[in-house]
Structure formats: structure tokens, C-alpha cells
UniProtKB/TrEMBL annotation, chains A, B:
This is Phenol 2-monooxygenase. InterPro entries: FAD-bd, FAD/NAD-bd_sf, Phe_hydrox_C_dim_dom, PHOX_C_sf, RIFMO-like, Thioredoxin-like_sf. The keyword Oxidoreductase applies. Pfam families: FAD_binding_3 (PF01494), Phe_hydrox_dim (PF07976). CDD domains: PHOX_C (cd02979). It comes from Heliocybe sulcata.
Amino acid sequence: MPAPLVKESAVDVLVIGAGPAGLMAANALGRAGVNVRIIDKRPKKVAAGQADGIQPRIVEVFHSYGLGERLLREGCRLHMAAFYNPGPDGGIELTSRTRNISAATARFPFAMTLNQGAIESIFLDSMQEMDIDVDRPIVPSYLEISSSEVELKNPQSHAVKVLVLQHLGSEQEVEETEIVKAKYVIGADGAHSWVRKQFAITMDGEHTDYVWGVVDIIPDTDFPDIRNRCAIHSNNGSCMIIPREGDLVRLYLQLTDENLKMVTNPVTGKPDISLCNTEQLMEVAKKTFYPYRIDADGEIGWWTLYIIGQRVASQFSVDERVFIAGDACHTHSPKAGQGMNASMNDTHNLAWKLSHVLRGWADPSLLKTYEYERRRYAQDLINFDKIFARLFSNKPKTKDNVNGVTHEEFVEAFSKAGGFTSGIGIHYNESVLVNPTYQSLATKLIVGERMPPQPIIRVADSWPFELQDLLPADTRFKVLFFTGDYLEPVQREKVLALAESMSQPESFLQKFTPKGARSSDVFDLITIAASRKEEITYNDFPKILRPHWSRIYTDDIDFSGKFGGKAYASFGIDPQGAIIVVRPDQYVGMISPLDKVSELDDYFSSFMTRSVNL
Amino acid sequence: MPAPLVKESAVDVLVIGAGPAGLMAANALGRAGVNVRIIDKRPKKVAAGQADGIQPRIVEVFHSYGLGERLLREGCRLHMAAFYNPGPDGGIELTSRTRNISAATARFPFAMTLNQGAIESIFLDSMQEMDIDVDRPIVPSYLEISSSEVELKNPQSHAVKVLVLQHLGSEQEVEETEIVKAKYVIGADGAHSWVRKQFAITMDGEHTDYVWGVVDIIPDTDFPDIRNRCAIHSNNGSCMIIPREGDLVRLYLQLTDENLKMVTNPVTGKPDISLCNTEQLMEVAKKTFYPYRIDADGEIGWWTLYIIGQRVASQFSVDERVFIAGDACHTHSPKAGQGMNASMNDTHNLAWKLSHVLRGWADPSLLKTYEYERRRYAQDLINFDKIFARLFSNKPKTKDNVNGVTHEEFVEAFSKAGGFTSGIGIHYNESVLVNPTYQSLATKLIVGERMPPQPIIRVADSWPFELQDLLPADTRFKVLFFTGDYLEPVQREKVLALAESMSQPESFLQKFTPKGARSSDVFDLITIAASRKEEITYNDFPKILRPHWSRIYTDDIDFSGKFGGKAYASFGIDPQGAIIVVRPDQYVGMISPLDKVSELDDYFSSFMTRSVNL
């Protein structure tokens, strides 16, 4: 073996692991103009199988990065859920059908499936446009955070050193050693996270006794709900059907009794994938589906076996310099389709904060909110998962099994969980970023939750826009001025006064705009009036609110009569108006009265730093 | 000059001219798998300016080729129309604002603008995927149609010979002469069409006296409707404002009085572009906009001068072997934004017919319907244009000009023309392709007009689909079975009988499916029931109606409560059901009772040929 070469390099953010969490991070940071590098130990990206559940909120998030159209085009949509239970003769029968997603404000009111490889390709293609590739195969071997307080305090210092080994070319024996000096490191390196282990961060929680087989098939079947999301409780075990792209269907099959015995290693007492095969899984499927017929059409491309584990990392960050994200900090059952979503939402939450700190716009303490917000969410997720996994893995209630799960119990849990499983109801608690003081000014717009979709009309040209499309993940805070009816003199006066305050040097708009930059680089001001589109005129509004003609909107119905006119009502904002601050990740950060710009000054002062040179 | 080389080549369809009409033809034929070649005499494609109006129907057409998303993403949308007239002090003032597009069934209820170069790029990129490039610069120099009756009768004969000259490389002197033998030729070579001249086809109609300047600017203005489509009638001439991509705006400025004199060549008495410049046009704009201020921000990229001519070619085809399309067969004023749309719709109409004839599926006489349908439309367009151009070019009615055009007169014409200018109301008269016998079975679905949009629900997975998306431009006839409520025994019986008839050898489905092909290669059968989505099951339907699980739909409201449930009502189909045949270009071809498959047999027999080997 030749002597290893040692080289040194520096980067602002090093992302370890190119799964969905890592790629979301690298893409988001790249878009924000951050100097980012992403490495992965695998020589190639994953092809098929693995995670595939896409929840409504993550579709909104993809949209905010300009990646939603492709996701919608490529993915399979799950609108209907069907429930099967044992009939009088023991075989399964349809109990009921209902909508799959119950979250009322979901912009895309369906769940989706798309294999992890396709999701990763969406990010990889987006990153390609920014000339960011995944460096692979690169294996990290040593990591160290500086112990110098001076260094740790300065976000511009390369306070983390990571030693990595790169296998060169096809000759796996030739290794190159490199020291990567990074300002920040994100460990998105999966359930067996190497980064997590460097700091001996524990995973709190436990394994369950539930063992499941998963198999992707093109079904040959007379089962009528094979293209719906199905929960089958049979006397031979439970099954979840998840339709996928094209004609593909994923079956989650519970292994019980002799099937469970068959896959259990007699020495370890643990399930052993080498004792399982597709014939066995399809036998289980046939018994579960009886009296319906089910076979696999053609070869089975992907299958696996797993035990549900429900655990959360005890910390998500070390010194706010090294972060872990995705499977590295939470594992749970795959059947609720949460894993990939939770992982991508972790780094969606982290990326913009890192960008702000690295630009010197925000105080490094902002980074504490990552663990605060995402660990709490992960715990909620695990708690939900425990209930759901138990209900689903337990036998149905029958004459012979009076302690089993009733259909009503299951469907109620299924529906109640809608806000949660859809990702729509995710709530971040009060912090510097989440200030619910004036919650009452927008009663239906929950501070700490994501901004719901709502069509509004652009004043200059009456073009209806989806409000969420005006809130892209571009690292800017969006300040929405709900002015009320601008044709009312009282409201107009308020707006003029507001414009006057915002032009003062102590206003957030001036104070937190770096020298040499335009305020629109940091803050996107969006005005939403409540006047008839035929009557108001965009250039009647104060100049500070319209750096461009496109910034003035109104809450009115569009010409098709289908969209708009419900923003104030849906958000619970009364005619006196209000100001809504939306975070760069689309979460509502705070609400203020229309005539109290000082509230915005206070909010931004709590985490932003006074203007620095760009 | 070196001696010219002569080579020979053969192609099924030769398209001459790579503007919008030619590119639509080449792209559509390429998608249909036809051996097509497209040539253009210009060394490069047009960059900016020229045609840019995109009407609602053409957006639907682009969607049918899978190109609509990009068009919608890149184009500017015009929702609002504003009308200005002289106020009491002589300057213009806002008279009213109204919706720009009034066609009730438009799927995309707005006009659009996108420059011709961008439109062409959409086609070119689509063609690239099929390895079809525009051969350029290639100049046709001689064209001859065979005089052999035997050859002319056989659609597979290369009955047209075209001699073309290609300039090789950068050395313009080196020419290569080529004889292209084509089965069919499409002359999409513009207003001065060389192809048209080879057959001395006359253009019937006349020039008007109206002279207009056109200029693309980024405006610096206090005019409040600069981002709306505006019709300004001022005492200093009329102006049409057409907002465009980004901040660009196109102004159509009427030249009158001394401005008209200034651009008139004293010798010829005709307008002369060399006598005009941007300063003059901006002066006209300033007078027209008074009391509003208007200037161009930065340099003016494109401008021109034109006289309205309104003419239609006396024939659109020669021996159904050579066709002319687009500007080659109709010219009219650009302000109604019709030109590019009419041109693309010409070849959209022609391409599928050529595909069917070339495959041996249809009798060559089908090609007669191209001139029949499109020439009539062009005449209607010119008639409309005459009225619109007169109303718009004439002075407004004032105290001093009592014979002028009133605002009411203009707005009425504007609104009435909505169906026409949107492209939605285009109607093809009765022919082998348009059979209105059973019009009363679907009272609101006009035979000879395009199939309106309508959301329907896919039964297998409750996925809501836009019906138009199920009618792509894939050259197949779509047969829509509106079965009524399939849970009703009477309707179910009809459907079973229908399935039985269609399996008979004399049924259209068997008779016109070429040997060795599947019937779904020629006909796409789509079933649309009227049952609740929670209650019906896709695999209850006869197998012949579902070669794939995705072919069964129902008219029900989706889970969002926003889409669907109105198909039968909107189309005027009663619970007894009906069968609707939709042509490959999305026009309704015929309607039949649900229990009279023989009507379909007769319809298809009138132009299709009995199955041949593929």
C-alpha cells in the first residue's frame, strides 16, 4: 500500500451523508450561496426501495425550493384510505373508505410516494445547476471541535476539523487522507451515524417486538383497493398497502406466529433477514389477503425485514458547531411514512439559520433553536408512532380476541393523527423566533406553525398567486402587511405612518440591512390589502412598500370566481389589519398590530445583529 | 465557385419553415413517430420581438403535447383589461376595468404573452429529445408534384420533389443542391410563402389604411394600468398596451396625422420604416398617455412599423400533397394576438391527420378536412379582425367627433369576441370528422368544438384528474363512455352489452385495430361513471373497458371538496349516459347513445381503413 497523502481544505459547512437529510441541507445551503461540501461513504447513490413516503407538508417545502413541480409529476398520489377487517367467514372484507389526508389546510391534500432514489435525484439535479456534487466515496475517520473559546465564539472560525479518507479511482487500496476544516458540520449519516458516535450521543427509547416484512411488487390481484392506501387487519396478521409509482405497490406485512418463528435466529433470538425470502413474504400476503387473490407479476425488485425501533437522540447539536439530523437523531416505524419527511424537515429548519449566522446577519445563539424545535418534534413523532404501531400491529378485536383493536379505535387514531402525519400541524414552541404575543390579531394563523396556503391577487395585473409561492426558501424573512381596505382613509393613514416609521434609521428595515445591501436582500415586504381589484392601484401605495410593482396584493376573488377573497377570513385577521412575520422556512414567527412597527424591531433585535458590511 | 453537388434523399413529410406553424408540425409529427424533416432558410432562429400573443386555447394545445407547464412558467399572464378614453380636459382617464378573457370554459382563463423565440425554443427542446433538428440555412428552389394518378393515390409514394440549396459552413459561396423526395410537404414559410407562390395561390383580401408602430420597452411611468392589457382611445391616436415577460411592455401605437405623414414615403405614398425611429414612437406614446408620464427605461430592444392587411389564401392544399399553413395562408392585425395561435392551430389540425394517413389507418381523403376546417376558421378570423381593427383604429366619439367609436361599442365588441379571440369557441363544421346527429345527448358539449376541461376522479385510487389531461395529442381517438351510475342495474346492463358488442369482429374496436397491434394503440377507451367514489370499484367494470386499472373514472367530488362532480351537468349528459368521441386534436367528433355502438362503427368507417398490418 502506498504511503497516504495528506491534504488540507477549508469549507464553511461540511455535510456528512448524502441521503435526503444531507441533500436537503446541501441544496438549501448552496441556494443560499453558502460554501458547502457534501460527502458520502457509499460509492453510488441508492437506486430503489427504502423510504418512499412523502407527506403534504414536504411537498410544500419542495415547492418553496422550486422543486415541487417535479416531485408532483414523478410521485404517486394517495387520496383514499381503505380499511379491511375480518368478515364473518374469517376472510377480510371492506369496512370503510375515507380520505387519506384530513389536514384541512394542506395545499396538496394527499400523501405521496416516490422512492428515495428519485427524491435524491431531484436534489442532485438542483445541486448540479449550482455545481455542487456529492464527493464519494469518502469516509470520515476523526472529528474534533476546537476548545478555544475565542474560536467558538467567532462563527467565521473553522472550529471543526474532520479527517476523511477518500478511496481513489477503482483501486480501492489507494487512499487519500484529507483534513477538512469546517465552520460547521452536519452529520446526516443515518441511523448508525458515525458523527453521533464521536460524541457518544445516546439514542433514548426502545425496540418493539413487532417484526415486519416489506416487499415491492407489481400485483396481479382481484383485490379492489390495491391502488388505495389500505390498512388490513386480518386474523393472519396486519398489512399496510402503499401504492407507488407506475403499477408498483409496497406491502408492509406483519410477521406473526410461525412466520415470526421462521425468521427468528434460534441462537440470538432476534429476527434474521437471511432466514427470510420473498416466497415466504408472498405466502404471508396470500393468507392476509384471503379471500382475495394476490401474486407478484414478474420478479420482485426489492424487499426487506425490520423491527420497529422508536428512539430519539439525547442531543441534536454539540456546541452549535456539529449538528446531527435525520435518521441520525430519530428512528421510528416506516409505515406512517414519516421518516424521510422528518429528516428533510430537520435540515430545512437548520439551513437558513446557518446561512444567517455565516453571513453575520444573526447571532450564533440562533442555532440553539434547531435542537429546541426539532428534538421536541422528534419526541412528538415517537410518541405518535408508539400509539400507531401498537394499534396497527395488534390483532383485530374478534369473538376470540376480545382485547384486540376495534376498527373504530383504529380509524379514530388514523384521523386524529392527520395533522401530525401530514406534517401540516407541526408546531414550534415559543422562542426568539416564535413570539405569540399578538396571536389574537390573526386568530386562525398559529404562531409557530407553517403559513397556510391562500390565493391572493396581485394588484398591478390582477394575476392570482398562491401566497405560499411568495414565501420561497430564499433565506429572507417575509413581512406581510395586511393593510385592510386601502381605500378606507383610516387604514391608509396607518399605512402611511407605517411607511414613515420603517424609513427611520432605528427601524428593523434599516438597522438590519447590511451596509451596501438593499433591504430587499434581507426582508421581503409583501402588502396584502382588502380592496376590490378593479378599484385599487398599485402605485398609490408608499414607495417603501413597493421596491417593485409586484409587491402589492389584495384579498379579492379572481376573474374565474374560483380563487381568492378569503385571506382575511381564513387567517382571522380583522379589517384593522395586522403584520405577519413569516420565517424563511415558512413558519409564522410573530404577529404585530399594523401601527406598531416597534414590535417588529424588537422581534428582529432578539436574534439579528446590527448591519455589518456585506 | 465549385461545381454544385447533387444528392438525393427521401422523407415522409418535409416541413418548409421553422416558425411556430412549422415547429408545431414537426414536433407533432415527430411525437407521432412520423419520419419528418424541417428546413428553414434563416441561418439562426429569431431572438425576440415579433409575435407574442398566446391565447387560452393554445395553452390547452401545448398541454396536450406535454409542453404547457413550461409555457405557463415562462409566459406573462394577462387577467385584467383596462379601457382609457379622453377625459373632460382632453387627457386620458380610466373608464373601466374588466376581465381580459370572457370565454367561460377556458381552462386557463387569461391571455398570455411570450416572445416567439421562447415559443420556438419550447418546440426545439421538445424536438431535440426526439433527435429532430431544424436543417438551416436551406433554401427551397423548385417543387413538383407527380402527375401520375397511381402515385397520387398511394399515400406511401414520394409524390413530391423539392430541390433545395444548402449553404455549407461559414463559406456562404459553397452550395449543395439536394433533391428531397417527400410523401407530403407543409409550407409554413411565412407571409411571403415560397411554397404558396409555386402554385400561384392568391391571397384574397386587402390592406387597410391603418398604420401602427410597435415598440417593446421597460416603462418608467406613473400610468396605473401599465401591467394590464389596456386599450387607450386618445385624441392623439389609439394605443394598445400588452404587458410581457419580466418588466417588459409592448405598446401598439397608432400613427395619425403628422406622425403618419412623417413615416410616409413621398414617392410611393406608402409607410416606410426607414422614416421612423424610436424617438418618434416614444413621442407618440407620450402624447397618447397624457396626462400620465411614460418613458423607456434603458435601451429599446425591438420596434417595428406595420400596416394592417387582412387576407386569406384561396386554397390551403394542392392535391392533398402540399399544404400551406400559418402566415402563408392568413395575415391580419397583430393586436388581437391571434397570429401565432392561428398558425400553430393550423398544423395542430393537420399533423394527426397526416399521421393517420401515413400509417394506413385513414383514407387520404381525410386530408381534405384540413382546408375545410382551417380555411373557414381563417375567414372568420379576418372578419372578426376587420371589425376589431376598425373599432380600435377609429377616433373616440367626442363632442368634436360625433361619428367616433363609443366606449360601450368598443367594450361590447371586445367582450363578444371573447370566445373567438380566446380560441375556445373555434367551431369546425359538419364533415366525416364532425357528426352532430346526436348533439341532443350532450347538450352543452358542442360537436365540432374542443372538449372543455372538467375534473373527474379515477376510481382505483380517487385521484382527481383534469379530463383534458386524459386527451393528449397522441394521435389516438379517445372514446369516452359516460355510463351513468354504474351501481344502477339498468346502466350496468347497458355497459355489459356495450362491452359485448365491442368485442365483435365488426366493431370499430376490432375492425380498425391493425393486425398485430393492441386496440389501445389506436383508441383510448375512457369510462366515466356517475357513482360515488367510496362505493364503486374499478374491477367491477368489463375487462374490455380497462386494459389498465387507470381507465375507469367517475364524476364525483374529490376529497378537497373543490374539484369534480360536475361532468354530467356541465356537458348536459343525462343519467342514461352517452358516448363521446374526441378527436386526437381534442375536438368533439361525435356523440352516440350508450347502447348504439353501431353509430361509432359508422363514424369511424367514414374515414378509417380496415385493419392493415402494422
